Amino acid sequence: MKFGGTSVADLSKMRNAASRIQSEVEDGNNVIVTVSAMAGTTNKLIDKVKEISSLYDAREYDAIVSSGENVSAGLMALQLQSMGINARSWQGWQIPMKTTDHHSNSRIEEIDIENLIKKFNSGMQVAVVAGFQGISSNSRITTLGRGGSDTTAVALAAAFKADLCDIYTDVDGVFTTDPRITENAKKLAQISYEEMLELASLGAKVLQTRSVELAMRYKVKLRVLNSFVEGSGTLVCDEEDIMEKRIVSGITCSKDEAKLTLMGIKDKPGMAGMVFDCLSKANINVDMIIQNISDDGLTDVTFSCPTSQVDVASQALEQGKSNENFNYSKLVVDKYVAKISIVGIGMRSHSGVAQTMFKALGQENINIKVISTSEIKISVLIDRKYLELAVQILHDAFELEKAQN
Ligand code: ADP
Ligand code: ASP
Ligand code: MG
């Protein structure tokens, strides 16, 4: 059972979470509970780090920002003990949850479950594990990236071959789109791992992308539920187990995107390689890419990346010009774009989905700046000011309010 930041935001919310854990214990289950930091804590800690310096030591960043989870885990264990439950807290290093040393964005490599098993065998009913944390091979504290407690929970469920992995949050489950954007958003009864993976990686923060990847790989039975309202939530499962066949299951958006166009690049072999070599050396997360047909031997290359990386990307490209074979006439930057994506496994076998999407946006005079597709998703970049409107229009166009919940 994983409880996110809003589910452990204060002691009374912790008591609410603890009573859900208690019912599982009363049903005879051993439970591993993963908790996030109390709502707002991680952001505050990150702000403090950045206030000291924007060029901080990532190892100390992890030591600091992981601390919010320690407080939640200790408080939850105490709360459970006060209810007569044999519970104790575990920090990531105590498990140990072994990760890579990519500080602030580590990946779990191995979970040693011996310690937990021994304690369960000697009477522990609930292990409250601090989410988000790990330990590197250099014995430094690591963190798993924003939203990483979801991944802690799924990884533990996989390691223990748990019957279920329940992610408790502040909404009723996975919706057709972020319920905070449109009230027409509908909770889905089920969603496939593949669709959830696309939705998460394209901006739906209800589950961390990596947690869905792990659930898919290890076939973890994953549910998303509301901690405050009883309900059946959403089951993330295999495509074959989905009852309702939908063409489009969800719409998601990501607003901090920027579009950069390099104009007047020579249209000859090796040029794209040089552009993206500069960007990769500067650690830019390039997302969409398009290249136009050439005119007079010159072409344009457009790509998108997070808005926060625009300055570093521009600088890297400028510096790239020191290589005499690499040149461009102009870099045009649009910092105010958003990416809207529609996701659905039905797209594999249905035609006309792109047409419906583009037509709906066109009818509202929303200009599409870049398009990219994969087997089960179509993404477009649009002006950021149309983000909410575009989500609503597409929600209506694909009749998502009719989804079965
Ligand atoms: P927690 O603190 O419990 O981990 P998060 O804030 O990380 O919770 O994730 C839950 C939030 O994800 C919701 O409050 C909701 O606004 C947002 N969200 C975005 N897209 C979706 C979606 N398709 N379905 C449900 N929630 C979504
Ligand atoms: N507390 C961490 C964060 O805010 C991890 C999590 O909540 O999943 O990103
Ligand atoms: Mg989260």
Provide a descriptive summary of the structure in words.
With 405 residues, this protein is α/β, with parallel strands linked by helices. It has two domains: 169 residues, Acetylglutamate kinase-like (Carbamate kinase, 3-Layer(aba) Sandwich), CATH 3.40.1160.10; 165 residues, VC0802-like, CATH 3.30.2130. The protein is built from twelve helices and 18 strands. It has an eight-stranded mixed beta sheet, sandwiched between helices. Strands 14-15-13-16-18-17 form a six-stranded antiparallel beta sheet. Helix 1 crosses helix 4 and helix 9 packs across helix 10. Adenosine-5'-diphosphate binds next to loops.
Short description:
With 405 residues, the protein is an alpha/beta fold. It contains twelve helices and 18 strands.
Average pLDDT, to the nearest integer? 96
* Alpha-beta content class: alpha/beta
Number of strands: 18
If helices are DSSP runs of H or I spanning 4 or more residues, what is the number of helices?
12
> CATH class of the largest domain, anyone?
Alpha Beta
Q: If you compute it from the alpha carbons, what radius of gyration comes out, rounded to the nearest whole angstrom?
A: 23 Å
Percent strand equals 15-25%
Identify the strand order in the major beta sheet.
3-6-2-1-9-11-12-10
Question: Can you identify the CATH superfamily of the largest domain?
Answer: Acetylglutamate kinase-like
Spatial gap, N to C terminus:
22 Å
Number of domains: 2
The small-molecule ligands in this entry are:
adenosine-5'-diphosphate, aspartic acid, magnesium ion
Oligomer: single chain
Morphology: globular
Profile the largest sheet. 8 strands, mixed
Query: Uncertain spans, ≥5 residues at pLDDT below 50?
Result: none
What is the CATH topology classification name of the largest domain?
Answer: Carbamate kinase
Summarize the amount of helix as a percent range: 25-40%
CATH architecture term of the largest domain:
3-Layer(aba) Sandwich
